[in-house]
Write a structure and sequence with these properties.
The protein has helices at 3-7, 13-43, 49-52, 58-94, 99-114, 117-129, 133-162, 166-174, 179-209, 221-229, 238-267. With 284 residues, the protein is mostly helical. The chain folds into 2 domains: 11-43; 49-267, MetI-like fold. The model is unreliable at 271-284 (pLDDT under 50).
């Protein structure tokens, strides 16, 4: 018996027919919405060549890819690496037996989880980066993303560490290992395997949140997009720029998700749960 049949009842002929009807109706509705959107864009002359020229002209295309995509990926990568380190320290700190370590880590996590990322960027930029030009804007975005995502990952790490079977921890203590050794050699490696799906999701969040950097004049896709749709030579091409920028973010996130999933399968593997058939144990 397959796992699927155990989890829910198999739909009958009438239910399958209804599902097909729902699928067809839903598809038609989505196609109708898409057709209306295209018709409205055409009515507003949004398909004129000059509105899309920046994305076919080598000069503007190079600026979009180099100053936009490359800078966005650099900020996201820097923020993710720092967030993992920051989150690991906070997550381990929240599990400390010493109150002088545990409570400050708890306060930092709760504070930065509650502060909106945009406000954190603005705060860091005006407090530190406003007089530092490109460097100040760039690192204001990175530090804000590090603080927020690190606080979120701290909870993920803490939950992953607590999910490690206690028997393994007790066995390590019985062998004479210290708490630090148990944490580094037993709990953290297994916690990383448990938390990889959540880490992948948080990487996608960090990549998307780099778009908020336009508020502090940081480089990236949104900064280049703002320069393009602000140019009067392209005839107020806000919609084409937004569509292309959004599609670029979608592609980047798909690539990031694919890479992270490949890493998970390569180094962790996939768990398969075999559900025995009912009554299988009664057969001779």
């Amino acid at each position: 018996m397959s796992t699927t049949n155990v989890l829910f009842d198999t739909p009958g002929p009438r239910a399958r027919a209804r599902h097909r009807i729902y699928t067809v109706v839903g598809t038609l509705v989505l196609l109708a919405i898409l057709a209306v959107m295209i018709w409205r864009l055409a009515a507003e002359n949004q398909f004129e060549y000059r509105k899309w020229e920046p994305f076919v002209s080598p000069v503007y295309l190079e600026a979009f890819l180099v100053d936009g995509v490359l800078e966005t990926v650099k900020m996201a990568f820097s923020a993710i690496i720092l967030a993992v380190v920051f989150g690991t320290l906070l997550g381990v700190g929240k599990l400390s037996e010493h109150a002088v370590v545990r409570w400050p880590c708890w306060a930092v996590v709760e504070f930065w989880r509650a502060v909106p990322v945009l406000l954190a960027m603005v705060l860091i930029f005006y407090a530190w980066g406003i007089d530092r030009g490109y460097t100040g804007a760039y690192w204001s975005v990175v530090f804000a993303l590090m603080l927020y995502n690190g606080a979120v990952l701290a909870e993920v790490f803490r939950a992953g560490i607590n999910a490690v079977p206690k028997g393994q921890v007790e066995a390590a203590y019985a062998l004479g290992m210290r708490k630090t050794q148990v944490m580094v050699t037993i709990q953290l490696p297994q916690a990383v395997k448990i938390m990889l799906p959540a880490l992948i999701s948080q990487c996608v969040v960090a990549l998307k949140d780099t778009s908020l950097g336009y508020a502090v004049a940081a480089p990236g896709l949104t900064a280049v997009a703002k320069l393009i749709y602000s140019d009067p030579d392209f005839g107020q091409n806000h919609i084409p720029v937004v569509l292309v920028t959004a599609a670029t973010y979608v592609v980047l996130n798909l690539i990031l998700t694919w890479v992270a999933t490949w890493v998970q399968r390569r180094f962790v593997g996939e768990k398969r749960i075999d559900v025995p058939a009912v009554g299988a144990g009664d057969q001779d």
